[in-house]
TldD/PmbA family protein (Dehalobacterium formicoaceticum), 473 residues
Amino acid sequence: MLSKNELEKILDKALAAGGDFADIFMEKKVTTGIGCEDNKIERVNTGIDMGAGVRVISGETTSYAYTNDVSLDGLLEVAQIASRAAKSERSNKPVKITKKMPQFDFEIEMPPHQVSVSHKVEQVQLANQGARNIDEKIKQVSVGYGDVIQDVLIANSLGDQVEDRRIRTRLIVHAVASDQGQVQTGYESLGGTQGFEIFKCHNAEELGKAAGERACALLKAAPAPAGKMTVVMASEAGGTMVHEACGHGLEADLVQKKLSVYGDKIGQKVASSLVTVVDDATILGKFGTYRFDDEGIHGQKKTLIENGVLKGYMYDHLTAQKDHQKSTGNGRRESYREKPIPRMTNTYIAAGKDDPEKIIKDTKNGIFVKRMGGGQVNTTNGDFVFDVAEGYIIEDGEIKNLVRGATLTGNGPQALVMVDRVGSDLGFAIGTCGKDGQGAPVSDAQPTIRIQELIVGGTAQTEAKSKTTMKRL
């Protein structure tokens, strides 16, 4: 990585022709990926990716250039290219930077690079065997292990310098069951900003077993009913609802582009008074956690909706400047090849006071969603559609038979207004959030909640104009 004086020289070069702001983002990313298919380890990939990007902002114009050449000369050349977009004058005062320290820390007990590939392969094989041992109806199992060690250096013309190491580990299991022409799938995943110690708390074989059991159970499930009905979503379902139906609409760039149903509604009631929505980059161990965002701003906890009232949006530097706000530490990018944009981190509906079991008992008829699949949303009007990975019929306050093929279709703000029960539990899920062609690791969560009415099993689809998707891991 570069010295303080070298960073200052690069930033001065970036602003040589003018400009309001400049920053540099450098990263070295070491990754390992292991895949198992057809009962065999099909791939073991390791790699290193290194590079840097320089950004110059002049008014509402942004110029960005990146390179794999991280030498001082290479970065000075990139800075000169980025500087060509500047159209404003700047002071001749040179940039002076100071190192920022994190506001919280966490210990990685078993860094991935200190664990042998054979031990990683062993966890993959355990998950594979766990799924295959369930039943002979399991015809295919896919297991993917991945870890990443990302070292970043960020500096900007405001005088900030940040150095950080980010470590994430994950394991994903997909099981396919088939019987008499019927094919169903089950999946399970785990992951977090943790090292290999994640397997001390989570059993890879049990993860595979759960995926296999779900796939086999769905073979016997009845088709999901269609129509409007009450929906109870378990905390185990994760927060796909809050992520898609609400979270993306609270990202400031979509608000500023008039692509959010939540635009110009600060201080207004946008959800049930039982609903509080939080985005928190500081939760230890979660998949979307970080000490600094990709602009060098401290990771933060921010309340977006409080007791149903919209409190604010998620900002990066550029969108914050436009609204005369401070960045909320939500500037994220997939790699040095992309500019940062506002993104969620760990987003959740806060736990309430209701007993989750009593919520079910108090629901005469409806559908109980235990696991969610993927989803998408049209952030302009809030319309969404989600897949249900595991759902059950509720009859007279009891969970009855499993159903398959269910979807949930509705409108985000309307659905949040119709939340009439919020449980005291809270369950997280992980995913890769796609937006503007960039993927970002996230977590989402919710307690057990009851929505008075949604369309279940309908065929209505939505067009995600903001191109936001959730790939559930």
In short: Confidence is low (pLDDT under 50) at residues 458-467. The two ends are 33 Å apart (CA to CA). Residues 227-472 form one domain.
